[in-house]
Amino acid sequence: MGVLRMGYAHVRVTDLAEAKKHYTYTLGMKVTAEDGNKVYLKGWDEWDHHSVVIEEGGVGVVKFGFKVEKLEDLARFEKQGQAFGDCIVERMSKGDNLEVGDGVRFTTPGEHVIEVYHDMSSVGNEVGFHNPEAWPRHQEGVAVPAIDHALVVCQDPTLSESFFREVLDFYPTERVQPELESKECMATWLSAGQKIHDIAILGGPVQGKLHHFAFQLEDWSAVLKAADIFSMDDVSIDIGPTRHGITRGETIYFFDPSGNRNEVFAGGYRAYPDRPCVVWTPDQLGKGIFYHDRKLNEAFTSVWT
Amino acid sequence: MGVLRMGYAHVRVTDLAEAKKHYTYTLGMKVTAEDGNKVYLKGWDEWDHHSVVIEEGGVGVVKFGFKVEKLEDLARFEKQGQAFGDCIVERMSKGDNLEVGDGVRFTTPGEHVIEVYHDMSSVGNEVGFHNPEAWPRHQEGVAVPAIDHALVVCQDPTLSESFFREVLDFYPTERVQPELESKECMATWLSAGQKIHDIAILGGPVQGKLHHFAFQLEDWSAVLKAADIFSMDDVSIDIGPTRHGITRGETIYFFDPSGNRNEVFAGGYRAYPDRPCVVWTPDQLGKGIFYHDRKLNEAFTSVWT
Amino acid sequence: MGVLRMGYAHVRVTDLAEAKKHYTYTLGMKVTAEDGNKVYLKGWDEWDHHSVVIEEGGVGVVKFGFKVEKLEDLARFEKQGQAFGDCIVERMSKGDNLEVGDGVRFTTPGEHVIEVYHDMSSVGNEVGFHNPEAWPRHQEGVAVPAIDHALVVCQDPTLSESFFREVLDFYPTERVQPELESKECMATWLSAGQKIHDIAILGGPVQGKLHHFAFQLEDWSAVLKAADIFSMDDVSIDIGPTRHGITRGETIYFFDPSGNRNEVFAGGYRAYPDRPCVVWTPDQLGKGIFYHDRKLNEAFTSVWT
Amino acid sequence: MGVLRMGYAHVRVTDLAEAKKHYTYTLGMKVTAEDGNKVYLKGWDEWDHHSVVIEEGGVGVVKFGFKVEKLEDLARFEKQGQAFGDCIVERMSKGDNLEVGDGVRFTTPGEHVIEVYHDMSSVGNEVGFHNPEAWPRHQEGVAVPAIDHALVVCQDPTLSESFFREVLDFYPTERVQPELESKECMATWLSAGQKIHDIAILGGPVQGKLHHFAFQLEDWSAVLKAADIFSMDDVSIDIGPTRHGITRGETIYFFDPSGNRNEVFAGGYRAYPDRPCVVWTPDQLGKGIFYHDRKLNEAFTSVWT
After folding, report:
1. Nearest chain B Cα to D290, which residue?
2. A191 pLDDT higher than 90
């Protein structure tokens, strides 16, 4: 019945060994495969083969994968992409991505590459599915359970939002609009299900860029633990711990060693398509983004990869 | 595309004034209507007209409402109910329930009354949808944001599970089974979307009974605050604060003044239909239900309304 | 046996009504007396008459009071002050301060006024001392239970530290020193008992100034709640929520409407005189002060009152 | 100036290997020495050589050590013990206890052995005292930072309280009394400084017994983590997570493999000798001990070692 979730984020890193240490030792992900200049990783509560791919050579986002519930979703999305027009639509084949099945690859109007697929090899999570413990008894670092969402940057967020709404059946949960009644948006948070956002889009002077991709955390206590570990491990923190006004989520923005921005994210309310979309106006944008500081920091609108 | 969530729980109470005090002063819900022997209530983050109905006269569950995403879901569910056979299917009309539109009423094989509907009057939540604060500055008691799920009791949980799977498109996230490989279940937790459970079914010697209905809480800290308030307000606690092994949720079971069991529930992982269903076997049932005590208390399998 | 705790902070404010609103509506203190241009306030878990005095006219610290355990402590401290030499020592009389008994007033080498006293009228806390509840069922705003400590600024922190050590029997728990082995300090945190600090002293270009005075909070969850309320109430946040490396405390710095810096502070380890004093060197000062940001913000070393 | 804190608890265990696993693998203490049938352990934030001694052979408390601030405290306490009369007073010598200096050994009227001492070898804590991290990056299990207090059982708690007040200069912070105005107590919580209790005494039909000894935890989140680990490690939980009405502390009672009751304890307000002593009456005892359940469980008044 459509997109289940962001299945993977694939990013470039300048130094693979350094990046691997960040995602494993600090964030606590497990390496599930290494393949030439790529390392595949997953969080402890994920059962599919990987949720993050790091590839040596440069910096910045390569593409995102979104997993669909039913095989027939692929054809429907392909058709909707063709009808939408303002995007590139291609078939992708099993094996184009390690352990990932057939799918459809879109290049959005914002120049982000989005792959939708139905199959990824399952490797099981770390507590199993038979009388499981609540969490793994032995953990490393922040021990992120799973990937959560991404925020991407492009020049026309309203158009990119239309892509996600019309082609992939997402719906907006919160929007920054020039005015209270407006179809235009300066930024938008979109859900494919009941998560407060699976992807968000921020308007900026560039195309095809990543603002950050995020990992789930249990709660505000886990956010403090993460911040402490970032300090111990000399991870560069952009901002946080703090709360977002938008989504109500509890958060830290930080950078991987190559400069890709990561986030750890807890809380956030449950999204429903019949819930009125929350609208933020520019005068309250600072509070919307960083609820406590009530102003954007410089990096927010200038650092993306 | 189907059921969004449990929209309301309607229960009988022996003393309306006493019950109203419990749901408002202790739990912090707002009264949105009073109508003869019924009081309608909602949590602060709910925008639909009500999520709990208390009706004077006796004790125990009257029925549950589930809201659907699209009007055409109603006809589809009606048809699926007729095909399923082992249930009563009736049309219900706008006005049968205060502020609720047309719908379909099912009596499940476990003799629970389930109403599905598409429309309920919207009254807005308490922070609004325009540059909202993260939560209401002034709150009462536990200040539950919203209803979450219910656990019901009947004699054939496997059959009732089939009803929710085949008629209403729910899927099980966790099951207690006599053996690891078994189609039978002794209890089952079912999701209609990405919430870890929208309804759960427990096998017992009776039909049509309520084990508990639950309210969401933000996190483990909110659970402690709730427990403290229950003590201050002389609310009878059944068990908790503790964790469930099943769902991983953080919980308190407690009773309203008439003896209907309520729950406050935080945490729980995000459900997906492609996640392997978790299976519990009877030898680990105690740990599954109450993760810390690792045994059922007497009330769990004997007190229902 | 010496100083029990900081009993009161007395500060000037530019607008009494505005300040009163900050300390009562936002911080949740109670007014226990109003007296001309002064308002007296206490937190919910304090039993003595007041812990904060706000006085209209200007901005900045007037003085601090420290309560002693035994009446004879006053004479001993007076004698130790006279022996120390580098301070002004005066007797103060019952009634010099509302509801406060006889005492001794010191002007420290850093030009801070410190009053020690044995008696203050007791008005009881808000839960009482007979089968008490864990906290008051009805609270306002942040609902600070009690004052905690202050950080003051002067030109010679080593000398001021000597005053607190030799005259008032405090001992340092953490120090910032130019080198690992050094009697000099650039800042020092001092305890009179087992609290991680009752007063701290920061070196700067001025004398007799206040950096901040702090209120206790229960834990990291209470810190988030406080930050949210500051945002709702338009309180200016200096930094936080974050952790201090020094003391390990969880914190927010913020300003009252007149610009006096306040802090809410949770956690921190228990101090003992036989615990080795923690030493920080200037290269790690940023991490010592703000454990997550790992650098001082501009305000830290330039804004004091 | 008197007792600083409980320095060590020395208990018998039936199986040393099993007990060692409990205190190291589950609780995360470090072994600092092994000596025939004894193992010495400390928490990560303790700098003295050990805080727990487990000795093979039986079950139950052997003795407690309390560290004093000044060497001359020993002679004063010895004299006060002789004046008190109703106790045995002996000198103990350096080497009587591994790594512990000279001291005085008391047998209280409740037949508990209490050793006071001034010197124990310092081995440092796990983060050091020079630009330290907030906590150790790698931890095992619950990772208790330090021992906190003990509750002991004897026939005349009022008399034993007098011992701690008159001989060792403790003061009561909370008491259970037959009536609101009464010098008698059925249980008493005593502080030597500003911790809410360093020792507590419960009346019962036996002499010289241990109810439990406790470890500090950071906060309510750490209590949940501990409870989860106890479940994973098959540790027998007596009760909790819950709150005490008395002390307001957040708690779990559990048993080591030999049946000695342990506690993890967070929160609790700061004690001061000028704070009115809290009085509980028998009708509210259940709420005083277990604030949420509001009744004693059977084990509370019958299981001690």
Report:
1. B231
2. yes
Strand segments, DSSP code E, in C93-133 are 103-107, 113-117
pLDDT tens digits for D115-159? Answer: 999 999 999 999 999 999 999 999 999 999 999 999 999 999 999
**Is the CB of residue D304 less than 8 Å from the CB of residue D261?**
yes
Burial, D268: exposed, middle or buried (Cβ in 10 Å; 0-12, 13-18, 19+)?
Answer: buried
Residue pair D140/D25 in contact by the 8 Å Cβ criterion:
yes
Cβ A23 vs Cβ A52: under 8 Å: yes
Question: To the nearest whole percent, how much of chain C has pLDDT over 90?
Answer: 99
The enclosing H or E element of C261 equals strand C261-266
Mutate to test the interface with A, among C228, C231, C236, C293 (most CBs of A within 10 A): C231
Enumerate the β-bridge partners of residue A251.
A242, A265
For residues C53-77, average pLDDT: 98
D134 and A221 within 8 Å at the Cβ level: the answer is: no
Chain B contact set for C230 (CB, 8 A) = none
Looking only at the bridges linking them, the beta strands covering C88-92 and C147-154 are unpaired
Hey, what CATH class is C3-117 in? Answer: alpha beta
- With cut-offs at 50, 70 and 90, classify the pLDDT of residue A1: confident
The confidence score (pLDDT) of residue A33 equals 98
B248: closest chain D residue by CA: D228
| Interface probe, candidates B194, B223, B280, chain A, greatest A C-beta count within 10 A | B194
- From start to end of chain B, where are the E strands? 3-13, 30-35, 38-42, 52-56, 60-68, 88-92, 103-107, 113-117, 147-154, 171-176, 187-191, 199-203, 209-216, 237-243, 250-255, 261-266, 278-280
Does the annotation count A90 as an active-site position? no
- Alpha-carbon distance of D104 to D65, in angstroms, equals 10
Cβ-Cβ contacts under 8 Å, A229 against chain D: 137
Does A135 contact D221 at a Cβ distance shorter than 8 Å? no
Domains of chain D: which residue ranges?
3-117, 146-302
Spell out which residues of chain C touch residue A221, defining contact as CB-CB under 8 Å.
220-221
User: What is the rounded distance in angstroms from the CA atom of residue C249 to the CA atom of residue C197?
Assistant: 10
Evaluated on CA atoms A118, A120, A122, A127, the torsion sign reads negative
Are the folds of A3-117 and A146-302 the same?
yes
Give the pLDDT mean for D20-24. Answer: 98
Let me know if C3 is exposed, middle or buried by CB neighbors in 10 A (0-12, 13-18, 19+). buried
Tens of pLDDT along D244-270? Answer: 999 999 999 999 999 999 999 999 999
Q: Name the class of domain D146-302.
A: alpha beta
pLDDT for B271: 98
Chain C hits for B135, CB-CB cut-off 8 Å, are: 228
> Residue C227 corresponds to which tokens in the numbers above?
């930050």
Model pLDDT, residue A60: 98
pLDDT reading at C1 higher than 80: no
pLDDT at position C198:
98
Give the contacts of C33 (CB within 8 A, at least 6 positions apart): C39, C40, C49, C50, C98, C99
User: What are D165's two structure tokens?
Assistant: 């007040």
The helix (H) or strand (E) run that includes residue D66 is strand D60-68
- Cα D211 from chain centroid? 10
Closest CB from D133, D134, D232 relative to A137: D232
Q: Which amino acid is at D21?
A: K
Res. B1 pLDDT band, cuts 50 70 90: confident
Structure confidence by residue, pLDDT tens digits, A113-171: 999 999 999 999 999 999 999 999 999 999 999 999 999 999 999 999 999 999 999 99
Helix (H, G, I), strand (E, B) or coil at A231: helix
Cα–Cα distance for residue pair A256/B159, rounded to 1 Å: 50
Q: For residue A101, give both structure tokens.
A: 């099945």
